[in-house]
């Protein structure tokens, strides 16, 4: 998946000349090894239809740029026809950094998708304010960039994930109802704090980035079976991310997937956005906690990590606590009502539950599946499967780190060749 | 826009070799002239980045295949550097054929997008049954194909538009609640009646095809400004078609855009699908007519053309008839409630009103715009504009004809070179 879907076409379909052909084919080989795994030059030629001499030349250049290497297992047989080549994770890393209502998080991935650094701290951004939040987040990012540098790598980009409406091209967080923030020039604020970074800094909605990570999680094994995916992610707010036709779809102005404020509970409560009956008033984490706990319950303590708090809810549900189970059943019913709307409109191959929905999936999946069966007009729920993400609250930062690496997969020539490099 | 988005990727990104490079560049030139209009070889070279000798060779081949010609205005100066080339409409045509609840329709477009034949007849398919419907529709298609042949053209494809859930790859109409049909092998039934056609026959949902036509209608002038579009089309049922990122999005199993059964009126009436409160029970044409007219009103006579009947409603609204205006105001309010849901999820650049919604747009647009402003969480309704299609009830057949021509724009080499052809 590439970032280019977020950019506007000029209306002219790009033609191919011989320079762009070489760059295109470098990208084809690099992405093919990412998607299909280590393989020999002969196999790459067979898979892609490129001739063997071309593949050898392309692989040599990608090795020279530090993006591929001879596979570990067969060192000493370099150049042998059956020798496998694989992604080289040492040269470049991408970083995702999330600012959410109750926590900050950073993840760095190398080119192979391996997690190099991952951290999350409880943080009450709404009360501590934007400046303090940006300072703390910049500190976490600098730690990650420094750690990447220490292992000889280069940070190619940092993507910020935020729980609100984003104008990506302008780098603006337009509106975050659950933070009470509006029109925040977040890329500029962060770039200033990061002191003239050599890497690109961008911002996107956390559910969009989470959807990218979920797409990697569920489509990697069989891209032909999963091309359309919706992520529903539950935290204090509820976010949606849409992948259609194998591409992240941000909508015309970057505001797609705003499911948290669908009017599913007309008789419901007042929402942070000022409206009544929004979906997140009945399925957001606060709604669950209001139903399941008393105000002084330690499970509501935002100074604890959210996954610890959810582990306690899980423990209570597993122990058969009636109040907890009733609250989960109620949330499940409302989740189904809104979920069926999303499935009717988008007909995803998979509906992915992320954030707290994923963590409490054992209690939420069944009522959601039932609602999809009953309320989706297409036969058999349109073939949509409900799955739980295993990424917990790391989906957005992983998606951010992935998208930071996309520019390398789109144009490997942007990474300079290494002086005196050897495989 | 290409049909290929409906096909599943193998996961291997296509590499470019020199044969596919030539085919790719033929398609680049042909589509560029379609999208940007007649222009000189020098201008094509400048626009696309291809070199001038290559462009001359590509244009010569496309002329030889009967797809381009020297522009009319400057005949006699063939080959002069400033000579314009344009699409040649004489060689190939695409056909769209619609089967809807109250009518049958056929349109043929030539390669330039010009309408060659357009017909629509009132037809009560639900009562007359599938066999009689297919016989009549096949007759209309054969007339169109014969007319194309008489002007020396070739029919490259017929796309059937139907008001229901379609399994495109299998050629099956899975479910059409408003016809009472289920699991109909429509492509086979039509192919049999068309007696071994030399052209390709396929089927798609009418709102999907209408969305393609609406995309051509509203994105042609400025493709960079409109990449995300939703068509809401009102007839007896209500359909939705989704274009995102410049591509028609059919969803994972071809069932996207099923907005007619969104649960927007929980206290509402029984729907043809068996559920209660579906959107089309409050905004479908029957809902409008139930509110605006008595049972014996001639405006309900399905043996009259639907556009004549809507003209009569328009006349009454313009004359200030209170019952008509109250019915339109009520439909407008409900249209806004569901429309805001669609806009929150998809954030289109434009929300297009088609079918009867478009015809009665002067009374429906304002309440819809108001609902989008009030109920969409993104600032300023997410930048979504509400527009009325000028295509009336021809959107689906036009989209079908366009998609039938797409294969030529994707691979011009499928049209054989002409023996003794001259520009």
UniProtKB/TrEMBL annotation, chains A, B:
Q: Which domain of life is it from?
A: Bacteria
Coiled-coil ranges per UniProt? none
A Pfam family: ROK
Q: Which residues are in the HTH marR-type domain?
A: 29-75
The family line of this record is:
Belongs to the ROK (NagC/XylR) family.
Protein name per the record: ROK family protein
Q: Where is the signal peptide?
A: none
Which SUPFAM superfamilies does this chain map to?
Answer: Actin-like ATPase domain, Winged helix' DNA-binding domain
